[in-house]
Specification:
- Helix content is about 20%, strand content about 35%.
- It has about 350 residues and is an alpha+beta fold.
- A hairpin with a 4-residue loop joins strand 17 (about 300-305) and strand 18 (about 310-315).
- It has helices at about 10-15, 35-45, 65-70, 120-125, 145-150, 155, 195-205, 215-220, 255-265, and strands at about 20, 25-30, 45-50, 55-60, 85-90, 95-105, 110-115, 130, 135-140, 165-170, 170-175, 185-190, 210, 270-275, 290, 295-300, 300-305, 310-315, 325-330, 335-340.
- Helix 2 (about 35-45) crosses helix 8 (about 215-220).
- Among the domains are: about 10-55 and about 130-220, 2-Layer Sandwich (Gyrase A, domain 2); about 55-125 and about 235-265, Alpha-Beta Plaits.
- A 7-stranded antiparallel β-sheet has the order 16-15-19-20-14-18-17, covered by helices on one side.
Length: about 350
């Protein structure tokens, strides 16, 4: 089956994007300036990503709070309307089907945001409607994101961290959340297709650099944010990824609860761990990690850190490794010395 093109595909091509397949979509990998430049612009100023490949499942109705509460791991009672929450969808064995952001717009109205390839799995678990094709999602990220986006419309800049709002923009409703996936400040704008092209061009005209999935991946890696299919999957658990805070332990029910409670009692056998090398060699997913002659796991993600100018990676590793432990990475027939380091690798700009 041919990969789907985002609504703004032609605009990205016009802006100089290199297009690659990703999660069943044709998405911008980078623009003319390149991934490293886009990455550093996000850390120092502001960039805009098209993340329309992510899903939107609209859940409206009086039964929706209970449906989400009884299915997803986190506890909606911790927040309320006008807030966003990170959560997981598990299977009955406690493994991660998807990681999700829930936008709680009003008392009985939620937008559930799954990963690109998992939208159908979410719609089968929840009584919602897939509206992914009807809107675009633009993520503006960076320490100057609010300053820049205020030039387009000051209301965009007013959204607080993990807050959700909506308002009329050019005659249609846009939905905005103070969320992102870079480790920096920012927001995500869900705009109907009919104004998406105009909005993206306005953001670029305001001095916000367009950025692709290459920079989005290196940014989230520096920030140690898990990626579904890598740190999170049907063979890994929430606790292994050190994300126990997304479990509503006081809830009486959610899918996979019994398995997660049992895992908490005996402790996860693996934990998300970061490693770094001295040189600039990018680390690669799948590299074996060896400590004291024993293989303790493989890297689930790896790359070059533009900020640290070092190769970095992380994986679900066994052995109770401490920060500062020396390990060896087996990459393409070579043995590369590395050091276990605390996560995240890079914290957001102040």
């Amino acid at each position: 089956m041919t990969d789907r093109r985002p609504f703004l595909y032609e605009t990205h091509v016009e802006l100089g994007a290199k297009i690659v397949p990703f999660g069943g979509w044709e998405m911008p990998l980078q623009y003319a300036s390149g991934t490293v430049a886009e990455h550093l612009m996000c850390r120092r100023d502001a960039v805009v990503f098209d993340v329309s490949h992510l899903g939107t499942v609209r859940c409206d109705g009086i039964q929706m709070f209970d449906a989400l509460q009884d299915t997803l791991t986190n506890d909606l009672r911790k927040i309320g309307p006008g807030r966003a929450q990170y959560t997981h969808l598990l299977n009955d064995d406690g493994f991660v089907v998807d990681d999700i952001i829930v936008w709680w717009l009003s008392e009985n109205e939620f937008d559930v945001m799954p990963n690109a390839s998992n939208t159908s799995g979410v719609t089968s678990a929840l009584p919602g409607i897939d509206v992914t094709r009807e809107r675009c999602v633009l993520a503006v990220q960076g320490p100057k994101a609010r300053e820049r986006v205020a030039e387009v419309d000051p209301r965009f800049a007013e959204i607080g961290r993990f807050r959700v709002t909506r308002f009329d923009y050019r005659g249609v409703e846009v939905r905005v959340a103070g969320t992102g996936y870079t480790g920096e400040d920012g927001l995500e704008i869900a705009a109907p297709n009919e104004v998406a092209d105009e909005l993206l061009r306005a953001l670029v005209d305001a001095g916000i650099t367009p950025a692709g999935l290459g920079a989005r991946d290196t940014l989230r890696l520096e920030a140690a944010l898990p990626l579904y299919g890598h740190e999170l999957s049907l063979t890994s658990t929430t606790l292994e990824a050190r994300l126990g805070w997304v479990i509503g332990w006081d809830k009486e029910t959610f899918r996979g609860r019994a398995a997660v409670v049992a895992e908490r009692e005996w402790g996860p056998s693996r934990l998300l761990t970061g490693v770094m090398v001295e040189g600039r060699q990018p680390l690669r997913e799948g590299a074996s990690v060896v400590c004291s002659g024993a293989t303790v796991g493989t890297l689930s993600s790896g790359n070059f850190s533009p900020v640290l100018e070092r190769g970095i990676g992380m994986g679900l590793l066994t052995g109770g490794l401490d920060d500062g432990s020396l390990v060896t990475l087996e990459m393409r027939g070579r043995e590369v010395p590395a050091t276990v380091v605390p996560l995240p690798f890079v914290r957001k700009a102040k």
